[in-house]
Amino acid sequence: MAQWVPDVLEDEFEQRTLPLGKDDQGEVVATLVRALPEPVPPQPAGWERFVRRLRGLPLQDDPPLLDGVDVLYVHGWSDYFFQKRLARFWSARGARFFALDLRKYGRSLRDGQTPGYITDLKTYDEDIAAAVEAIAEDADTSRGPRRLVLMGHSMGGLVLSLWASRHPDAAAAVILNAPWLEFQLAPLRAAIAPMVELQARLRPLDVTPQIDLGFYARAQAEVADVDDAMTTNLQWRPTPAMAVHAGWLHAILDGHRAVGEGLSIPVPVCVLLSARSALPSRWSEDLTSADTVLVVDDIARRALKLGASVTVERVDGALHDVFLSRKQARDDAYARMERWVTGWVHTSP
């Protein structure tokens, strides 16, 4: 069995390799990263609590808000997990935080593999199943069953939305950070999809055209806090982004089609989005306060097809990754997420 070892993020972060067998490019793995909260001291038994009250002694603090909660985060396209700040939001409130680098991304990318390549998003069921099993192995259930919260960004939001719909009993809540639920050129999707499908069937590794002028990466750098900088591995999170292959694009469009037909996520869903989009055709300061990757109005409409209980939060001034935005927008995003999570905790069974 693979063991937890120190992660490249250092500090409290650890990682564990999850073997997934082989494909035609060799050994396949996913990587699970974790950040654990401070241990919760045992609560006094009923009689001890009664005696302490009689003596006027203080009782121990109540368990933290998210005691008994596990969070599983999945990154977006051409990305991996590196956001310490996000992990600590959850662990500071008592949750165990886990992040999954999917196969052929980040920590899971091996020599000779095509970065991020996959031809069916359902294949990620294996990655998620391995992560859920590892999360459950050392879970403390002495205070009752634990609850799983799924959190995904961009492509990871699409992957987890589809998975949650297919596994209705697995998660207790879903939180999505600018999920990629619709193609950016939605009006052209009907015309593009058949051509992509044919190319994917005949030459799936063909590279399809994409334009990445590096403006999104520049916007993140422009708004980053000097005293709270985040460093990234440029091989794992390159600029320009990873090459787009026909087989992979067909898988994404198929996922978009499934969302468009309607999913059946049975638990509450929170979707965080920028208030507006901006076309990154040339550099301007506007790109530091908008989503330059997705058409957020389209995503907001698509989000309503995820399930019966969906909250959409629009964050003014946010980037595509709302938690990497300028501090004011980022703080707003965290405040909105905390408000939603607090309500979920107090109203969920």
User: Oligomeric form of this entry?
Assistant: single chain
CA-atom Rg in angstroms: 21 Å
Q: Which consecutive residue ranges, at least 5 long each, have pLDDT under 50?
A: none
What class do helices, strands and sheet pairing give?
alpha/beta
| Outline | globular
Helix content: 25-40%
Main sheet characteristics: 9 strands, mixed
Distance between the termini: 35 Å
Order of helices and strands: EEEHEHEHEHEHHHEHEH
Structural account:
With 349 residues, the protein is of the alpha/beta class. It is built from 9 helices and 9 strands. The chain has helices at residues 46-54, 84-91, 124-137, 155-166, 189-202, 215-223, 246-261, 296-303, 327-347; strands spanning 5-6, 14-23, 26-35, 69-74, 96-101, 147-153, 173-177, 269-274, 310-315. Strands 1-2-3-5-4-6-7-8-9 form a 9-stranded mixed β-sheet, with helices on both faces. Strand 8 (269-274), helix 8 and strand 9 (310-315) form a beta-alpha-beta unit. Helix 4 (155-166) packs across helix 7 (246-261). The mean pLDDT is 93.
